[in-house]
Specification:
Largest sheet: 5 strands, mixed
Order of helices and strands: EHEHEHHHHEEEHHHHHHEHEEEHHHHEHH
Distance between the termini: 47 Å
Mean pLDDT: 89
Low-confidence stretches: 1-37
Shape: globular
Number of strands: 11
Strand content: 5-15%
Number of helices: 19
Structural class: alpha/beta
Radius of gyration: 21 Å
Length: 451
């Protein structure tokens, strides 16, 4: 990833040029009756001195770089506002945020995981403020495609995911694909695999040559979901995965297609395509191993690009395999949306901050610091390098393919169910059929209780 000259200031205002992203399933980010509980203002220059408490998970190199730069620019534009930032890793934030939002001193702005077990639970508990009035005032419904806003949209009671009120805005797009070492492929005499069949052939070649075909660190359980999700996209129809991923009715886990996807993953384990002890390996240790030259491929999200590129430079590449039908379908969506808590001291200031983080100029800062802007993606794409690969993959998947939801969005307990089931599948403690049955039980129970 390149490190070009950084922007030193950001101007707020203007409606960003939105990249039209193709929805993988119907959904809407704009409700028919936006809530209008209080009078609002987009001018915060006269609110007096105020401290805005923000909890985020922008802890990695490029993530931290962009947020620090934008925070400094926001404070420079509004000297009356001081940002009190609390930055935590993803897992830590998910844990601490649940308790923090019940406290009388809850933060003003938080990044909340889109899924039902986090944002959905907070919406149901009335801990997040609907943002439709601010979306109208700032033009967010024009800035973002509906297919993106659906992942931050819930009905007021959180029963329906993808329709209702808007509760947050993301900064970055995310796409899960396959990182690889170009020099390793050259040594093995391999081209970049075009589809899943070619990828499996490459894994066999790498294994025969004594390489570690795939690095995986799954001690946290969720990383294997970023292996299974893209692989599932090669076997199961996109609209089916979307219904399953959003926890909406009309789909089933116990299908031959889902079972085949699980069997394919288990076959990779049986063939020795993963590093030894993948279930006991830390997530960061896995990508660091690839960066150090140990391994050929790593399935992971675009958020790893900056750290991998810092270590691997031009040796790093990224791609998404085609399905048998010649289309692209892979897990992805957005980074964690920035939301306003119901306890926020001044929602006008909180909304101005979120607008500042996501406006037209902010997308330039994201691109300059090596992140993947959720809007203006094609316009800001670099000409070469791994970041060009990532931008192109995101654009191709969203324009001509299917960007599939993270499967742990589905139910309040699905992250745990999926994580444990994948560990069991990888360790051979469960069969592909039993794997799909465990997921169906969670999904079906939720639909019954939510119905």
């Amino acid at each position: 990833m390149r490190r070009s000259t950084r922007l030193t200031s950001v101007a707020i205002g203007g409606v960003a040029l939105a990249v039209t992203l193709a929805a993988c399933a119907p959904g809407t980010g704009q409700p028919t009756e936006p809530p209008q509980s209080t009078e609002i203002s987009t001018d915060i220059s006269g609110v007096g001195d105020i401290t805005l408490t923000v909890w985020d998970q922008e802890v990695r190199g490029a993530q931290n770089e962009q947020i620090e730069q934008l925070n400094a620019a926001f404070e420079a534009k509004y000297p009356n506002v001081t940002i009190e930032r609390n930055s935590q890793a993803f897992d830590d934030l998910n844990t601490t945020l649940r308790l923090a939002l019940t406290d009388k001193d809850a933060p003003d702005v938080v990044q909340a995981n889109n899924g039902r077990n986090t944002m959905g639970a907070f919406v149901a508990a009335d801990q997040l403020r609907p943002l439709n009035d601010y979306a109208d005032a700032y033009g967010w419904f024009d800035r973002y495609a509906e297919s993106i806003l659906q992942y931050s949209t819930y009905s007021e009671d959180a029963a329906v995911f993808g329709e209702g009120n808007l509760y947050g805005l993301p900064q970055v797009g995310e796409v899960v694909g396959i990182f690889y070492s170009k020099s390793k492929l050259d040594t093995l005499g391999l081209d970049v695999p075009s589809d899943w069949a070619a990828f499996e052939d490459a894994l066999a070649t790498a294994k025969a040559a004594g390489e570690i075909p795939i690095q995986l660190g799954n001690i946290e359980q969720w990383p294997a979901g970023h292996v299974f999700g893209p692989l599932q996209g090669g076997y199961v129809a996109a609209d089916e995965i979307t219904r399953l991923g959003l926890g909406n009715p009309g789909a089933s886990w116990t299908t031959p297609e889902n079972e085949k996807a699980a069997a394919a993953l288990q076959s990779w384990v049986d063939n020795g395509y993963f590093n030894e002890g993948a279930n006991g390996t830390d997530y960061d240790a896995a990508w660091q191993a690839l960066a150090a030259g140990n391994g050929v491929f790593l399935l992971g999200g675009s958020w790893l690009t900056a750290d991998l590129a810092d270590a691997m430079g031009d040796d790093l590449g990224f791609f998404v395999p085609e399905t048998d039908a010649g289309t692209l379908a892979t897990t992805g969506g957005t980074g964690l949306p920035f939301t306003i808590t119901s306890a926020a001291e001044n929602t006008d200031v909180a909304a101005a901050y979120i607008d500042f983080l996501t406006n037209d100029a902010a997308m330039e800062v994201l691109a300059e610091t090596g992140n993947l802007p959720v809007n203006r993606t094609a316009e800001l794409a670099p000409e070469s390098g791994v970041l060009s690969d990532v931008y192109t993959a995101f654009e191709d998947v969203t324009q001509d393919g299917s960007l599939l939801p993270y499967l742990d969005y589905a139910t309040p307990t699905f992250g745990d169910t999926l994580g444990q089931s994948l560990q069991d599948l990888i360790d051979g403690r469960t069969t592909p059929k039993q794997f799909t049955e465990a997921l169906e039980a969670d999904y079906a129970e939720f639909l019954t209780s939510n119905g």
